[in-house]
Write a structure and sequence with these properties.
By secondary structure, this protein is α/β, with parallel strands linked by helices. The protein has 2 domains: 12-86 and 305-355, no CATH class; 90-300, von Willebrand factor, type A domain (Rossmann fold, 3-Layer(aba) Sandwich), CATH 3.40.50. The protein contains 12 helices and 16 strands. The chain has helices at 12-22, 103-111, 113-117, 145-155, 166-177, 202-208, 220-230, 242-252, 255-263, 269-276, 288-300, 327-333, and strands at residues 38-43, 46-54, 69-73, 76-78, 80-85, 90-97, 125-131, 135-142, 186-193, 232-239, 280-283, 303-307, 318-325, 336-340, 343-345, 350-355. The strands form 4 sheets. Strands 8-7-6-9-10-11 form a 6-stranded mixed beta sheet, sandwiched between helices. It has a 4-stranded antiparallel beta sheet with strand order 5-12-2-14. A hairpin with a 3-residue loop joins β7 and β8. α2 (103-111) packs antiparallel against α4 and α5 (166-177) runs parallel beside α7 (220-230). It starts with 11 loop residues before the first helix and ends with a strand.
């Protein structure tokens, strides 16, 4: 029974510039060419964050190399031109559910938030957002950890008697990441939820979601489109409580609610994480701070791959991505679990200007 109680990076040009800066000698210089000349070219670099885990233990596979990976776009293998691990900075939106079954967990998290945030690098930027029916930005992107901690503490004191509209919260967090201050960063939503959403219908909005104007609720499809447009990964801390477990059990056994979910998908934390290449980590009130630190560490150890698409397609086309491992890696490491986003929307190619020579 669903509850009615409270509850591809857009600026590819900047990412391409970051990739070009990693090349050892830049573009080759023709004989007699003026060293101050400018080379202009069109380039598009698709970046993909990849997490590789041992399937049995779900521990990170370390020290992989570029040749260990294969990237495919719409079934066609692409040449990997950029490869790194933990070199690109993070832009993180901490997204907190304000409904009754999740909100108590925010208090212990706020008490030890500084310890968890210590697992970010100094150049990583973070924002804090809360949601129930609608989303509310408490702190915009900043590298000032005092401001982020203060925002998490404020979130721990907030209440809402409105419904939990997951798609709206995820959409707004992804849209915010589209405005991240560092255009070459890896973009992540770290979401604290119990995965018990309300059906985002007009009747539910009218009764327990009036902060959202009529006709403005974003759908699950809207949220996924925004996630893929901004190149955002969804990772989550999943909070279990007696209340949430009861709601899930009753909902799974209620054919009427099942029909409503099919007609108006309310959003699902596992679905969001799976399609964007993120992960879901179970937590509880006692572990929430340490689990947040562990989740940040897992995000940090992800590999980043970059390729220039070999297939020319018009802007707005959705391109499917698949990342696979070289068979030799599985022979060496055993069975592996590979997490990566499932696609992106093709953008206009970016026009780059770069001085020639070293």
């Amino acid at each position: 029974m669903d509850r009615c109680y409270p509850k591809t990076i857009r600026n590819l040009g900047m990412v391409a510039l970051a990739w070009l800066a990693c090349l050892p000698s830049g573009f080759p210089q023709a004989p007699g060419e003026d060293s101050e000349a400018t080379i202009r070219t069109t380039a598009e670099l698709v970046t993909v964050g990849v997490q590789v885990l041992h399937k049995k233990t779900e521990t990170t596979v370390e020290q992989l190399k570029q040749q260990d990976f294969h990237a495919y776009e719409d079934g066609v293998e692409q040449k990997i031109r950029f490869f790194s691990q933990d070199t690109l900075p993070l832009s993180v939106v901490f997204l907190f559910d304000l409904t009754d079954s999740v909100r108590p967990v925010l208090k212990p998290l706020a008490e030890r938030a500084r310890d968890a945030l210590g697992h970010l690098k100094p150049e990583d930027e973070a924002a804090v957002m809360v949601y129930a029916a609608s989303a509310n930005l408490l702190e915009d992107f900043t590298t000032d950890r005092d401001r982020t901690v203060a925002a998490i503490r404020k979130a721990s004191t907030m209440k809402s008697r409105e419904a939990a509209f997951f798609n709206e919260g995820v959409f707004q967090a992804a849209a915010l990441l589209g405005k991240a201050k560092n255009p070459a960063s890896r973009r992540v939503i770290i979401w604290l939820t119990d995965n018990v959403p309300n059906i985002p219908s007009e009747s539910v909005r009218r009764s327990v979601g009036s902060s959202v104007p009529r006709g403005s609720l974003h759908t699950e499809e809207d949220a996924f489109r925004e996630l893929f447009l901004t190149g955002t990964v969804v990772s989550a801390l999943l909070e279990h409580s007696a209340l949430s477990d009861l709601s899930i059990m009753l909902g799974n056994n209620n054919p009427v609610m099942t029909l409503f979910r099919l007609q108006t998908p309310p959003g699902d934390v596992f679905k969001y994480a799976d399609r964007t290449g993120g992960q879901v980590m179970k937590s509880d009130r006692k572990q929430v701070s340490s689990k947040l630190a562990e989740l940040i560490d897992q995000i940090r150890t992800r590999y980043s791959l970059g390729y220039a698409p070999s297939l020319k397609k018009p802007p707005g086309t959705f391109c499917k991505i698949r990342v696979a491992m070289n068979p030799e890696v599985e022979k060496r490491e055993g069975r592996l679990l590979v997490r990566a986003k499932q696609g992106y929307y093709r953008q206009e190619s970016a026009l780059l200007a770069r001085p020639a020579g070293p």
